[in-house]
Amino acid sequence: MTILYPDLQSSVAATAGVYAPQQDSQLLIEAMTLTGAVTGRRVADVCTGSGVIAIAAAQLGARSVTAFDICPKAVQCATGNAADAGVGVDARLGTWGDALEAGPFDVVVSNPPYVPTSPDAHLEEIPADVGPATAWNAGVDGRQVLNPLCDSAADLLTGSGTMLIVQSEFSDTEQSLRRLRSAGLDAEVILSQLIPFGPVMTARAAWMERIGMLPVGRREEEIVVIQAEKR
Ligand SMILES: C[S@@+](CC[C@H](N)C(=O)[O-])C[C@H]1O[C@@H](n2cnc3c(N)ncnc32)[C@H](O)[C@@H]1O
């Protein structure tokens, strides 16, 4: 069941070329709110985009927030949004690997790219205002960033640390749970939401049907938040 919280993302805007907060961003903010996981803790937001998750973490009382993104425009956008919101977020250019070097953190939150990507994805016509392809493209199985994030969870986190990740069922929720558990964490889905396909999934639906990833005619996906706790 999904519990809806006030729309914390509404005041955070994305500049051109940066992923605008969407339902997955909101679901991750709801998970932070519901669990109370970030309050008083050192938080890393990996794949920060506009900084919406990092800013929400700071607003929820995180002790410190460090945010990482591979896109310089996103880092600039997140820095500006945090200043506008009057909260402290240290936004840096970097990947999960840079978070690993800067860590460990008490809490790692992430809304990574997780959309399965066809070899012909470069031919798709997707409206520019949806953001850059690097915000969602994640290899044929959608796990290009999810795999290293899950596999390095134990090293990213302090003892008793928490990871919160949002992803789609189409990037294999069970695989994330398995990888996190193999890394020695307790992991479970704590929130889920069924949403209609947006422009990217719509553009990919025929390919996903062809390779058997999507039942023919289905045009909605379940997004989930996984909570993983380091023992
Ligand atoms: C789906 S967007 C999420 C943005 C924001 N956290 C939100 O929830 O609205 C994914 C972001 O991850 C960034 N990204 C892609 N690959 C990355 C990587 N390997 N390491 C860090 N950031 C990455 C993209 O530039 C993009 O800003």
TrEMBL record:
Q: Does the keyword Protein biosynthesis apply?
A: no
Enumerate the UniProt keywords alphabetically: Methyltransferase, S-adenosyl-L-methionine, Transferase
Stored Gene3D superfamilies: Vaccinia Virus protein VP39 (3.40.50.150)
Q: Which SUPFAM superfamilies match?
A: S-adenosyl-L-methionine-dependent methyltransferases
Q: Which GO terms describe its molecular function?
A: methyltransferase activity
Q: Which PROSITE patterns match?
A: N6_MTASE
GO aspect biological process, one term? methylation
Extract the NCBIfam families matched here. Answer: hemK_rel_arch (TIGR00537)
What protein name is recorded for this chain? Class I SAM-dependent methyltransferase
Q: Which organism is it from?
A: Mycolicibacterium pallens
